[in-house]
From TrEMBL:
Primary subcellular site in the record, as a coarse category: membrane
A Gene Ontology term for the protein's cellular component: membrane
Subcellular localization(s) per the UniProt record: Membrane
Source superkingdom: Eukaryota
Gene Ontology molecular function terms on file: glycosyltransferase activity
Transmembrane intervals: 29-50
Native source species: Platanthera zijinensis
Topology with respect to the bilayer: Single-pass type II membrane protein
A Pfam family per the record: Branch
Protein name as it appears in the record: Uncharacterized protein
Keywords: Glycoprotein, Glycosyltransferase, Membrane, Transferase, Transmembrane, Transmembrane helix
InterPro entries, per the entry: BC10-like, Glyco_trans_14
Length: 390
């Protein structure tokens, strides 16, 4: 904290000028008594006036104490001590380091009832290097549902997202850091997105999406499905292969056993409770940071393994984001404009059984799909009012 020594020393200097500490010896005693009496009388008057003013103030503006409109300090932001800004920061920009942010974001109120009207929201967290080619599709998806969602975008640090004022993506970029795909910095970016979204106490569900994801159901379906689910949706499975158990490092013992090791898609959906737990975990995260290096990929193992170890019953163990890995190779199949037909969209939706919500589903259900090329945008926009039903 900054102190202000300049002011203090100036005050000290001025004291002897106006209030001599000892009366001068050469003044007659009677004169001194008169002066003292006068001073006492004046002090009494001033005190009385001040008390009355304070008394009046207390009764006329008592509410000011609890809901201050004005702050009685010279150098403070009048907005800082208002609850509204504590439960939902008005700006996404901040100067916190990750450690500071994670600490702040993982605070959980002990009182379970909210002293404000809380409508649970879904946080849509976009992890991208730069542009969001489907932002106009998402804007149609979000339209009319303001207050039920929040958007967060993590880009490369130098990238400036260009969104128009009426877009859900306008000023939704969070303070971002460099990310190397396949390294633990990818998990850092995920935790950074979660932590920034946790700062808004109304966010209840947190879904990670990429720039090539599209929504395949309308907002109401997605919202109800996620908000009403007792489970989070993180794919987590044990694969006895070089790409599964083969990526386990025996030096992780005894903290993490091979039997606890899991694999899963990066594209998660988490409840607030699990999001807080993941952001606050340093112990297991550090093991992955140190011992899970290519061909081990922390983004495919850390969260699935961590949840399996500590919160298994709260996880559906499947993702709500569909990725087509049917084509062999390290990258999923990408769909362009020629793929976007009514049948194709419906085949994604109905893969498995059609979603049921309210009743906890046991079937496969895809709310989001990746990966689509920017060229798919136009035919998708063409479908918003028909097959996509946005
Ligand atoms: C941002 O987008 C608008 C249209 O939405 C465009 O006119 C403008 O040139 C863009 N700015 C930059 C820096 O790309
Ligand atoms: C998911 O796996 C965990 C074990 O990690 C298990 O406890 C849980 O019941 C599974 N969830 C469902 C919905 O089967
Ligand atoms: C459903 O998805 C699986 C992979 O997740 C794929 O193998 C299968 O062909 C899909 N089925 C349909 C009907 O699209
Ligand atoms: C949009 O849909 C109409 C019919 O509904 C079709 O004639 C047109 O070719 C479509 N445009 C694109 C770009 O898919």
């Amino acid at each position: 904290m900054e102190t202000k020594p300049a002011l203090k020393s100036r005050a000290n200097e001025s004291v002897p000028d106006f209030f001599p500490l000892t009366p001068r010896k050469d003044l007659p005693f009677g004169f001194m008594k008169l002066v003292c009496g006068l001073v006492l009388f004046m002090a009494g008057t001033v005190l009385g006036m001040a008390m009355r003013a304070r008394f009046n103030w207390y009764f006329t503006s008592h509410t000011e104490l609890f809901f201050p409109q004005t702050m009685y300090c010279a150098d403070c932001d009048p907005e800082t001590m208002v609850l509204k800004n504590f439960v939902k920061p008005s700006h996404l920009a901040h100067k916190m380091t990750d450690d500071e942010l994670f600490w702040r974001a993982t605070m959980v109120p002990k009182i379970h009832e909210f002293p404000f009207k809380r409508t649970p929201k879904v946080a849509f967290m976009f992890l991208t290097r730069g542009p969001l080619p489907f932002s106009s599709l998402w804007d149609i998806f979000f339209k009319g549902h303001e207050g039920l969602f929040s958007v967060y975008v993590h880009t490369l640090p130098e990238y400036k997202l260009n969104a128009s004022k009426n877009s859900a993506f306008y000023e939704r970029q969070i303070p971002s850091e460099e990310v190397q795909w396949g390294s633990a910095t990818l998990v850092d970016a995920e935790k950074r997105l979660l932590a920034n979204a946790l700062l808004d106490f109304s966010n209840e569900r947190f879904v990670l999406l990429s720039e090539s994801c599209i929504p395949v159901f309308n907002f109401q379906t997605v919202y109800e499905y996620l908000i009403n689910s007792a489970h989070s949706f993180v794919q987590s499975y044990d694969e006895d292969s070089p790409r599964g158990r083969g990526r386990y490092n025996t030096r992780m013992r005894p903290a993490i056993k091979l039997s606890q090791w899991r694999k899963g898609s990066e594209w998660f959906e988490l409840s607030r409770e699990l999001a807080v737990n993941i952001v606050s975990d340093y112990k297991y995260y550090r093991i992955f940071q140190k011992l899970c290096r290519p061909s081990c990929y922390p983004d495919e193992h850390y969260i699935p393994t961590y949840l399996n170890m500590f919160h298994g019953p709260l996880n559906a163990n499947r993702s709500v984001t569909w990725v087509d890995w049917s084509r062999l190779g390290p990258h999923p199949a990408t769909y362009g404009r020629e793929s976007v037909t009514v049948n194709f969209i419906e085949s994604i939706r109905n893969n498995g059984t059609i979603c049921t919500y309210n009743n906890e589903p046991t079937s496969v259900c895809y709310l989001f799909a990746r990966k689509f090329a920017p060229s798919a945008l136009e035919p998708l926009l063409n479908m918003t009012s028909t097959v996509l039903d946005f």
